[in-house]
Write a structure and sequence with these properties.
Pfam families: Na_Pi_cotrans, PhoU. The protein has helices spanning 2-39, 46-60, 63-75, 81-94, 97-103, 110-123, 127-153, 160-167, 175-192, 195-207, 213-226, 229-234, 240-262, 264-271, 281-300, 304-314, 336-367, 374-401, 407-442, 449-474, 481-508, 513-540. With 542 residues, it is mainly alpha-helical. It has 2 domains: 2-314, no CATH class; 330-540, Methane Monooxygenase Hydroxylase, Chain G, domain 1, CATH 1.20.58.220.
Length: 542
């Protein structure tokens, strides 16, 4: 009998957790693009930020996902601390939706729900349809897991050992019992790192009569504290603002639990006005969970600005913290769709800087600017910067490829890596061009009027071509392969013509070998630079 109980409880818990994983993961995939547009609504308005937190958490069915995602955005400077606090408060409300899902008494239908969904998943062709069936299968597994745990826990109600164990944190035994139950809830949630899981266990224990409704409410209060451990772990190694957001999440929930515990009997009396715990204990627990979080948010929301200022004074950014160049953070991997979209934003930014660097190169040629000139250094620094950007883009997008994500996201991540590599190559050839010009100046070799005129032609065509490709990429107008091929061919033909004219002039008069080879190298680099622009178009059309 003991093994039978253990197998049912541990099996039910495993099925429940696995179901939560699939439901949350499926919801994230379904809501991926919607999350991106919802986060775009963020303003300095604390109420809007809070609503965003509620909606996103309700959509992905995980406060851990939304809070870790928020920590990532803060760490990448995509979100202010004030906005983050609003989102985190909203996430506390959004996570209560899980409790209301569990209120549905459809445990006996959980297994057929999971089974039918699994069969339909196997025969589905579309990735989107597969994701929907997988999500529904996860929901079925949640209810089936709860049913197994409920069946497993049932015999424990009459066993003296377990009766004594659960009485050790009985909230009806006084103030100490309430605190003990809250601590147990916090500890279990911190270990499992899922308040939804511990909420499900609490509901099963209460529905089987192993714990009373008062203890269940105290456990739920503790679970709200335990869930903050995920954000705290996510903030390790992060910048000060991310640490501030994680600490605020913990402090707000702890203070909330403290004030409710201090008036616990009155809180229970207040709850009984809405739901009778004897008639429906599951609904009672869900109501307690929701009421606590909604009330806590209403109390703290007006003071978000003050909390942010206080945290900024308490936690100071260390000088040795190296700021990343891009706004990409591994904590954002909770929402891969946003990672690939933000990567495109970063590539767009560098594209604008490359276009500006073209003008710096031409000014360097025309005015024979030295190495310490602003224009020369702009080109050099851009290439150095692009090396780092490429590394950051490749690192996080490679991690996206290891995740269980849909094919469109995988394709975008691969294109991000490939295009950033091409942009890096473009900046590399730009840097080589200015250094060759520097070498000519160091050897007192000046480009002739004819040389400059020809360079101006291939420079202009190369700039126009890159600008055309970059603008098409920004506007997501990828159907440009025919036109791009024509432009690339025009640059190749011009390159051949300039090279022929240059060699003809060299035959008429004696020139320095440094000037001859240097000029040819510059032409070659423009040609190679344009080849990489064409490769970007080819990547987009894969």
């Amino acid at each position: 009998m003991g093994l039978d109980i253990f197998f049912k409880v541990i099996g039910g818990l495993g099925v429940f957790l696995y179901g939560m994983h699939h439901m949350s993961g499926g919801m994230q995939k379904i809501a991926g693009t919607k999350i991106k547009s919802i986060i775009g609504l963020l303003t300095k308005n604390r109420v809007i930020a809070c609503i965003v937190g509620v909606v996103v958490t309700a959509m992905v069915q995980s406060s851990s996902v939304s809070t870790v995602m928020t920590i990532g955005f803060v760490n990448a400077s995509l979100m202010s601390l004030k906005q983050a606090l609003g989102v985190i408060l909203g996430a506390n409300i959004g996570t209560t939706v899980t409790g209301w899902i569990l209120v549905l008494k459809i445990g006996k239908y959980g297994l057929p729900m999971a089974g039918i969904s699994a069969i339909l998943y196997l025969f589905a062709k579309s990735e989107k349809v597969k994701t929907k069936f997988l999500t529904f299968m996860g929901l079925g597994m949640i209810f089936f897991g709860l049913e197994l745990m409920s069946s497993g826990f049932k015999p424990l109600r009459t066993m003296p050992f377990f009766i004594e164990l659960f009485h050790s944190f009985d909230a009806t035994s006084g103030f100490g019992g309430v605190i003990a139950a809250a601590l147990v809830g916090a500890l279990l949630t911190a270990i499992v790192q899922s308040s939804s899981a511990t909420l499900g266990i609490t509901i099963v224990l209460a529905s089987q009569g192993m714990i009373n409704s008062e203890t269940a409410v105290a456990l739920v209060l503790g679970e709200n504290v335990g869930t903050t451990i995920t954000a705290m772990l996510a903030s390790l190694g992060a910048r000060a603002n991310a640490k501030r957001a994680a600490i605020a999440h913990t402090v707000i929930n702890v203070i909330g639990v403290i004030w409710v515990v201090s008036i616990f009997p009155y809180y229970l009396q207040f709850l009984s006005n809405f739901v009778n715990p004897v008639a429906n204990v599951t609904k009672y627990i869900a109501t307690a969970h929701t009421m606590f979080n909604v009330t806590n948010v209403l109390l703290f929301l007006p003071f978000i600005g003050y909390i942010a200022k206080m945290l900024e004074k308490m936690i100071v950014e260390k000088e040795e913290v190296v700021k990343k160049i891009t706004h990409l953070d591994e904590r954002m991997l909770e929402t891969p769709d946003i990672v690939v979209e933000q990567t495109k934003v970063e590539i767009n930014k560098i594209g604008t800087k490359i276009i500006s660097a073209f003008d710096d190169i031409m000014k360097t040629f025309k005015e024979n600017l030295p190495e310490d000139s602003k224009e020369f250094q702009n080109v050099v620094k851009l290439e150095d910067k692009m090396d780092i950007i490429q590394g950051e883009i490749a690192s996080i997008n490679s991690k996206v490829l290891t995740l269980d994500v849909e094919e469109p996201i995988i394709k975008k991540a691969r294109k991000n890596i490939a295009i950033s590599d091409q942009y890096e190559s473009v900046t590399d050839y730009m840097k080589r061009i200015v250094f060759i010009h520097k070498r000519l100046l160091d050897n007192d070799q000046m480009l002739s009027k004819e040389n400059l005129e020809d360079l101006g032609k291939i420079h202009t065509l190369s700039l126009d071509f890159f600008n055309y490709v970059d603008s098409s990429y920004k506007d997501e107008n990828y159907n440009i392969l025919v036109e791009a091929t024509k432009r690339s061919a025009a640059i190749s033909n011009l390159y051949k013509e300039i090279r022929r004219n240059h060699l003809d002039r060299m035959a008429e008069t004696t020139k320095s070998p440094i000037l001859v080879t240097g000029y040819m190298d510059i032409l070659n680099h423009y040609k190679r630079l344009s080849d990489h622009s064409l490769t970007v178009v080819e990547i987009l059309n894969i």
